[in-house]
Amino acid sequence: MGFDLPLFPDQASTMATRVDHLYFYLLAVSAFFTILITAMLIFFAIRYRRARHPNAVPIEGSTKLELAWTGIPLIIAMSMFVWAANIFFAMNRPPRGALEIYAVGKQWMWKFEHVGGQREINQLHVPVGRDVKLTMISQDVIHSMFFPAFRVKQDVLPNRYTTVWFHPTKIGTYHLFCAEYCGTKHSGMIGQVVVMEPAQYQAWLAGGAQGGSLVASGERLFRDLACDTCHRPDTGARGPDLAGLFGKPVRFAGGGSAVADETYIRESITNPAAKVVEGFQPIMPTFQGQVSEEGLLQLVAYIKSLQTQTPAAAPGAPPAAAAPPRGNP
Length: 329
What we know:
Layout: H1 14-47, H2 63-91, E1 99-106, E2 109-114, E3 119-121, E4 123-127, E5 132-138, E6 143-147, E7 152-156, E8 162-166, E9 172-178, E10 190-196, H3 198-208, H4 214-224, E11 249-251, E12 257-259, H5 262-270, H6 293-305
Parallel strand pairs: 1-5, 4-10
Antiparallel strand pairs: 1-2, 2-3, 5-8, 6-7, 6-9, 9-10, 11-12
Helix pairs in contact: 1-2, 4-6, 5-6
């Protein structure tokens, strides 16, 4: 159950209510002990003042007192820890099936791209009543995406994807801030998130697409960079087939493995020598500086779209679904 208080941002997401309840619990505990300690300090200062008790008498050997001032703070501290940890894990685990939107932070603006190819700068449109997941990266320095009305904030880093998710519950226009000092014009790195009815959101999507979907743009870039000359489904390919790669573990030459997520795919494009896949030679050139962050996101979206496809099997080889994935983009 939510409640709006003066001087507080709107509660416009499911997470906002949970965060506020924890905040007021911490505030109540702090206020209670502040008042209690202050009152006891005044009481004992008056009762045991020097005029009535010139000589101090130490108190020793109270097991009940020792248990009380050890057990009660422990219970209170553990309640704070468990409650906060529960919210922390919920914040960091985007629900399956969430609406995916990609974001790039740069000095001093936010750029968003929807799966359908709609692009926005410093403004983000989302539907009410649906989980929304942002996959974010910085083009230059560290930024931090902060939605006060949703009570979620996540650092946006160079060279590494981070995610944040929220579930809007109220239609309206809310603030978007950068919460990390990122340069002389940091205070101007602001924006808005517009929460709309689902039908209005679909209408907005229909009128805003330019240049095709994110996946289509990624596929086009994939071919323009001649990636398909090596990453082919036939046995003569010099790079592995990418069908079904995303989300699967990949083994590396010399040992070690990693799950093929967004960060792995990005690193494989910009620094392919960092992790050489078992069974392949390190012949892939780097595309660092040749592809923009938006282009990298498009390539990632395209490779993710191949997730449901089955890798082609070599003649005589076992079915690809039974074999472990091998290869990097």
